[in-house]
Amino acid sequence: MRYLAFATDYDGTLATNGAVSDTTVRALENVKASGRKLLLVTGRHLPDLQRVFQKVELFDRVVAENGALLYDPASREEKVLAEAPKEEFLEQLRKAGVSFEVGRAIVASWTPAEVAILEVIKRMGLDYQVIFNKGAVMVLPSGINKATGLRAALGDLQLSAHNTVAIGDAENDHAFLAGSECGVAVGNALPALREKADVVTRGDHGAGVVELIEQLLQDDLQAWDERLERSSLPIGNRLDVGAGGGPGKDEVRIVPNRNSVMVVGASASGKSSAVAGILEECEERGYQFCLIDPEGDFEGLAGAMVVGSPSEQPDAKMLGKALESTQSVVVNLMGVALPERPGAFAGLLPRILETRAKSGRPHWLVIDEAHHLLPMTWSPASSAMPQELGGTILITVHPEHVSTVALAFVDVVVATGKAAGGTIAEFAKAAQIGMPGELAAPPESGEALVWFVRRHPNHAPVLLQTRRAKAERRRHKRSYAQGELSPEQSFYFRGPEGKLNLRAQNLMTFLQVGEGVDEETWMFHARRGDYSRWFETMIKDEDLAACAREIEQNGSQGVAESRKKLRAAVESRYTAPA
Asked: How far is CA 371 from CA 298, 335, 368, 411, 527, in A?
């Protein structure tokens, strides 16, 4: 479920001439029965609202006084979110002949009193703002509005604005709608609000609210995903001819909490960089992600907190606590032995899904090395998994080795590298989906082929320039120095006749084993360029690879000198174990 909170204005939206119809109340009750939270966000004073509306208890939170007061109908607790107006200010308004009402923090009047009010504010040098609601004039401390009140209410409920749909009708609803994931204007809303809203209902007042609720309960507003451009994430710009049409029109986007994305490609093909760009965008936009990082590759990514380390296994309870915050989380599995990592992930997944079911977060669950953590033998224990795996990014070299259950959720494939077309074909075969039309040219560095598997299954993948992260991803060096790489990523000293099979699962082991092998074996791999190739393709360190290549190609030096220089090159770049 993407939308867990339904927030509505009162006058002119929920109510007509101050009254709410029985039909509208029943629709609100249906929202409540669906497990979603109801929020009422109004400019009215709380006692006035309670006097005209007898169903306030339907709501989980009420934001009154245009954002200045938060009320919990269940506990009847009130929380004032702004300072009360200064008595000197009220006295000056009286002297100016202004008729007004005072709440806990709001001063409410009516047009054309704003002229006199603004004059008093200017003369006294106060940091107050005037907000309009059709004929009403409201005075509040600067920075207080319906959006700040909504944010406080959602924080109280441990929910995100990214999981909220809001509906309103007037000037004071601009910030309110913009502060939600989907902002809706009822049909009778002011023209300026209808123009800015993501969606405008056909019906007005309560009928418009009922219309929105019916769509929400029917498909969680999924039919509106493509029109909510501000609530989706750009992953790159199309490069094929004729894809333009103005600024931003050639962007390719994915939908948080909805799309299930698979990023596929060979090692060093750019798939991790593409994911880093997506996650940096998440951080900038306030979407929470939880990244499962088996090999410690994503330390420091986009300001995320890290759970687990090369020497400490991640704890499910600690992870659950971390996810309660709005900060993104990277789960480092380096402290778990390689064969045990799928089991460790299986133990963490229920806690992640439990948190998501309650709060809608993390908005993205990112699983690196998906072929290892979700192997073909993997099968979910929960029957609710089809809903739970929306908002997922799977990263893998081998789509054909990923569980067919997980593949069934994938609706967007992002393929990187020269072999992207073949990789898409491997995914299609494994997922038992027909291949799309003619493929575009193979992607260059910083590009990818993107195929919308479910939305446009017969359309050829489009070529796009992937979003480049503003800050380069800092690879976790200690994971390569002392962690355990998979057998496929390890280096093997075999010798010229293949008599040896000495595995180096990290750089420190590589140096230790390399010191011990015979000279013939060492030089066999050096002449073939095996060391530089491993550094480039598996360690993904182009600088180290270039240095190793120079050492390999220097035929005049002896074995001892070759080993010494290569050790120095590795140790100068990577942290040795303590």
From this structure: 18, 19, 9, 17, 33
Residue 177, both tokens: 């709608």
Residues β-bridged to residue 108: 101, 138
Look at residue 511 and give its three-state secondary structure. Answer: helix
Task: List Cα–Cα distances, 435 to 405, 411, 494, in angstroms.
Answer: 19, 14, 40
Closest CA to 295 of 543, 46, 540: 540
Give the helix/strand (H/E) hosting 52: helix 46-52
- In the predicted model, is pLDDT for residue 378 greater than 90? no
- The strand order across the sheet containing 364-367 reads 251-254, 233-238, 462-466, 447-452, 412-415, 260-264, 392-396, 364-367, 289-293, 329-332, 305-307
Q: Do the beta carbons of residue 178 and residue 100 sit within 8 Å? A: no
The candidate with the shortest Cα–Cα distance to 345, out of 403, 288, 300, is 403
Q: What is the dihedral of CA 191, 197, 200, 201, to 10 degrees?
A: -110
| CB within 8 Å of 326: residues ≥ 6 apart | 160, 286, 288, 361
Tell me how many degrees the CA angle 156-157-159 measures, rounded to the nearest 5. Answer: 115
Q: What would the mean pLDDT of 163-176 be, rounded to a whole number?
A: 96
- Position 201 pLDDT exceeds 90: yes
Pairwise CA distance, residues 264 & 550, whole Å:
31
Backbone angles phi, psi at 77, to 5 degrees: -85, 135
When pLDDT is cut at 50, 70 and 90, the band that residue 471 belongs to is low
Give the C-alpha separation, 346 to 368, whole Å: 14
Residue 45 tokens, joined: 């004073």
Q: What is the pLDDT of residues 351-365, one digit of tens each?
A: 998 899 899 999 999
Question: Which position has the token pair 């075999």?
Answer: 494
Q: What is the DSSP string of 95-133?
A: HTT---EE-SS-EEEETTTHHHHHHHHHHHT--EEEEEE
Query: Considering only CA atoms, which of 416, 412, 440 is closest in space to residue 242?
Result: 440
Q: Which helix (H) or strand (E) holds 131?
A: strand 128-133
Closest alpha carbon to 142 in 83, 198, 205: 83
pLDDT at 246: 40
DSSP 371-413: HHHSBTT---S-TTHHHHTSSEEEEES-GGGB-HHHHTT--EE
Quote the mean pLDDT of the chain.
Answer: 89
How far is it, in rounded angstroms, from Cα 169 to Cα 192?
10
Task: Map out the domains of the chain with their CATH numbers.
Answer: 1-77+145-230 (3.40.50.1000), 82-143 (3.90.1070.10), 233-466 (3.40.50.300), 477-573 (no CATH)
Read off the DSSP letter of residue 312.
Answer: B
Tokens of 471: 């800050």
